[in-house]
Design a protein that fits this description.
The chain is of the alpha/beta class and 91 residues long. The chain has a domain of 40 residues. 42% of the residues lie in helices and 15% in strands. It has a 3-stranded parallel β-sheet, sandwiched between helices. Strand 1, helix 1 and strand 2 form a beta-alpha-beta unit. The radius of gyration is 13 Å and the shape is globular.
Length: 91
C-alpha cells in the first residue's frame, strides 16, 4: 500500500487526514514543519505527500521544490490544490 506523508502544522488536520487514509489502508507519516518533512522523506520511501502551503518554518511550495530537486530522480510529480482533494471522487 502507498505511504503518504502529511505535512501540516495543524495537528487536528493531520489526525483527521491520517485517520481517514489509514482506514483506507494507507500508511501515513506526519510532519508538522518543513524540516521534519525533509527528514521524513530522507528516512522513508514516500509515495505521496499532502503539503500545507503555510508552514511555520518555510512555505509548502519551497518544501515541494526541495522534494522535487533532492529526492525525485525518476519518479513522477503532480500537485493538486487542496480544495480538489476534498471533493468527492467519482466512481
Amino acid at each position: 500500500m502507498a505511504k503518504i506523508l502529511i505535512i501540516d502544522d495543524d495537528h487536528n488536520i493531520c489526525k483527521v487526514l491520517s485517520d481517514i487514509l489509514r482506514l483506507k489502508g494507507y500508511i501515513c507519516i506526519i510532519a508538522h514543519t518543513a524540516r521534519e518533512a525533509i527528514e521524513e522523506i530522507e528516512k522513508n520511501n514516500v509515495d505521496i505527500a499532502v503539503i500545507d502551503i503555510k508552514l511555520p518554518d518555510n512555505s509548502g511550495i519551497e518544501v515541494l521544490k526541495k522534494i522535487k530537486k533532492s529526492f525525485l530522480k525518476q519518479r513522477p510529480l503532480s500537485s493538486l490544490p487542496m480544495p480538489h482533494f476534498l471533493q468527492p471522487l467519482r466512481p
